[in-house]
Design brief:
The protein is mainly alpha-helical. The chain has six helices and four strands; from the N terminus they run H-E-H-H-E-H-E-E-H-H. The two termini are 26 Å apart. The chain binds a DNA duplex through helix 2, helix 3 and strand 2.
Length: 114
DNA sequence: GGCGTGACTATGG
DNA sequence: ACCATAGCCACGC
């Protein structure tokens, strides 16, 4: 993956994350698949953690792992900022896991209409 | 180029 | 449902 591909990958990911509706969430792997790189789930998390990501316009807190776990919460500073943001959107979290994950899950491939 | 690492995932016990 | 394991692959050292 050269730098050009990497930039496309990054831009595509950020575009999808911006589409996640409030009150819903998706997974690293689902986003990776949606942009055509099914094995790049780890990179999705890496990119969302980069410093130049503006968390005001990129709702990175709506991206969790495939089990609905808040595996990235440590990147949101201390005191469970990620959990707080999700709860403020009406999502219930128990032991770092989103309740009713199958209902909350937003699948980009299915729900994005071009 | 080797090696360890990680906001990951699918699978099997 | 929980844990371990093996794939995965860009990145940094």
């Amino acid at each position: 993956m050269n730098r050009f591909e990497r930039d496309l990958f990054k831009n595509s990911i950020l575009r999808i994350v911006k589409m996640i509706p409030s009150g819903r969430a998706t997974s690293y792997g689902a986003i990776a698949k949606a942009v055509g790189y099914p094995n790049m789930s780890r990179m999705v998390g890496h990119i969302l953690g980069e410093d130049d990501i503006h968390k005001e316009i990129i709702p990175a807190h709506r991206v969790v792992n495939s089990q609905g776990r808040l595996s990235g919460k440590d990147a949101f500073g201390k005191n469970s900022e990620m959990q707080r943001l999700l709860e403020s959107e009406g999502i219930t979290i128990i032991d770092d896991r989103i309740k009713n994950w199958s209902k909350i899950f937003w699948n980009p491939i299915v729900e994005i209409i071009l």
